[in-house]
Amino acid sequence: MGRPERPVATADPALEKLARWLRERRHAAGLTHRELARRSAYAFSDTTFSRATTGTRVPRLPVVEAYARACGAPVGHARGLWRAARYAEYRRRNPGADVPRPDSVYSRDELIHALQQLYHQAGAMPLDEMERRAGRHGELPHSTLHRMLAGKSVLDLQQLDAFLRVCDVTGGEWERWCLAWRRVRRRHEVLRAGDRLTRTLRTPAPGDPVPRRIPAPAEAAGEPSSAPPPVALAMPLFRGARTARAAPRVPVPRA
User: Fold this and answer.
1) What pLDDT shows up at residue 203?
2) Torsion angle of C-alpha atoms 129, 131, 133, 139, degrees rounded to 10
């Protein structure tokens, strides 16, 4: 019989809940840490499994999943507890962090910022691990994720779907994220159309005389004109759209 386990050494409720749940599953299965290692085909050592429930730090997700699987416990529940512990850790370090709200997303920068926060809410696992869990090769490249988290690019719809699956986003929440992406895409297309129209109206054809612009009566009187610019003719008003917020650069954890 092994030595009695020390009490869970943490004041973090989320981490304590994860550690106690793992311990309870092992006790219910009547297994030692060595038996856990054997059942996991020695993917991790008995020492690694023992440290996973001390409460000194959040263990890696593969360790938590292997621990639960060896005990015959639900792996999805273990993964949810791990995500909660990791997110609680992130919120302590970043007390002003936003909660991701796809319904409030209208612009490219807002979408990037919301996905950055979703990444942390889902546990901020290493990017190569996310790429592996996405499935098919190239479906969610870690380099693409790195650029998105740095605020330099937006995921396409297929990449967004893979990202949401890895983050365990399903059902109605998944639909709201896809709607947010389509909303941003439509806005981007409208703005591009407005820019093309503006360039067309301002650029005369080769050989044509440059037309003389006739000032509006208000401008002739020295007052500013209230006439909308040409781009407004092609851009519908987006109700409820907020001023775009620049996406901050987010530190990306190394694998």
Assistant:
1) 66
2) 180
